Amino acid sequence: MSAEAAAKVQQLWEKLVIRRVSRTIAREPEDVIRMELKAVNPDDPTRLHYSGGSERVITSMRSSDVPKEDRWRLSTYWRHFYGFTTDGVYFALGRHEVIDHGLGLHAELEHDDGRADRRGIYDYRPLEGELIAGELSEGQKGPLFNRWFRCTRQFLFLVNLIRIGQPMPKQELAQKLYRPTAGWGDTYWVFANLVLNDDISPFIEVLMSEDQRPSHAAAGMKDFFGLVVTNQAIHLPFDAFQWLHEMSLWLEQPEWWKKFLEETSRLGLVHFHPVWGGVCEACEFEMMKNLDFPDYESGWFDYQFPYSESRANFLERNSNYRPV
């Protein structure tokens, strides 16, 4: 089964290329929309304030007017920039966009710029030596990125690993793919572990109590907040169970979800998804196959409950509810 999943991702990523940036050209102040200095965390002057607020706006829109020691917290909104990779491929701001490669935007496989010292800073301009990924086309003056996004060395390793299709122990995957610069540091290795190993154990472990949960696959490494990883549950872009269910749908691997339900039932572990207010596309798909359509107006989704409840009972309990 893992070979089938890997083949599916390989097909989705067939046109994906990754290149290293040689230089980026952006003019100040002509190409700047707004420039502001982010506030510092009073408890840790090496980090930004948790609110994400700004200390002041740089009205000249020139970085040279900001002291060098403060430029690490400079947030710049660009109207335009362009650049070239080390092999001469052109890229520009207008062509940057999120590319989900058929995995759905919620997979969040490319949302990380890898700059540990720039968390909360807005500046999508790739710096020299950084990586960008995307799809190429041929322009009048040579190859160019038709669309692209900034990525990390972990993403490069993930793509190469999936293309090879060789299973690898989850601890080794975590050591190579855990991302301490991202708020959702587990996404890459959990994805690789699922696709290459058909391993759903990290999702089962989310439901275990702390004293029963085994050590995290990346134990000993430091997380986004600088804390040492021990045996905490995996941290994904959103609800872990919804992530697994939707990935089972997108990659056409229903056995993953079936195995998860069987194992949680065997262990007596109860889960429900998505979290209140969310919508699981895989659950919707299953409901629609049975001609049972979600009731968006009343907010009734039978899969949101860890117990069985009929639509009639739900509507009776919420008879005073009126959508705003």
Task: Describe it.
The chain is 27% helix and 18% strand. By secondary structure, the chain is α+β, with helices and mostly antiparallel strands. The protein has a domain at 2-154. It has a five-stranded antiparallel sheet. A hairpin with a 2-residue loop joins strand 3 (40-41) and strand 4. Helix 1 crosses helix 4. The model is unreliable at 296-300 and 303-309 (pLDDT under 50).
Pick out its properties.
3-stranded antiparallel beta sheet; globular; 5-stranded antiparallel beta sheet; alpha+beta; 10 strands; 9 helices; 324 residues
Concise summary:
It is built from 9 helices and 10 strands. The chain has 324 residues and is α+β, with helices and mostly antiparallel strands. The strands form 3 sheets. It has a 5-stranded antiparallel beta sheet with strand order 8-7-1-9-10. Strands 5-2-6 form a 3-stranded antiparallel beta sheet, with no helix packed on it.
Secondary-structure blueprint of this entry?
Elements: H1 2-12, E1 17-25, E2 32-38, E3 40-41, E4 44-48, E5 54-57, E6 74-78, E7 82-85, E8 90-92, E9 131-139, E10 142-151, H2 153-164, H3 170-177, H4 187-197, H5 201-206, H6 240-250, H7 254-267, H8 281-289, H9 311-317
Antiparallel strand pairs: 1-7, 1-9, 2-5, 2-6, 3-4, 7-8, 9-10
Helix pairs in contact: 1-4, 2-4, 3-4, 6-7
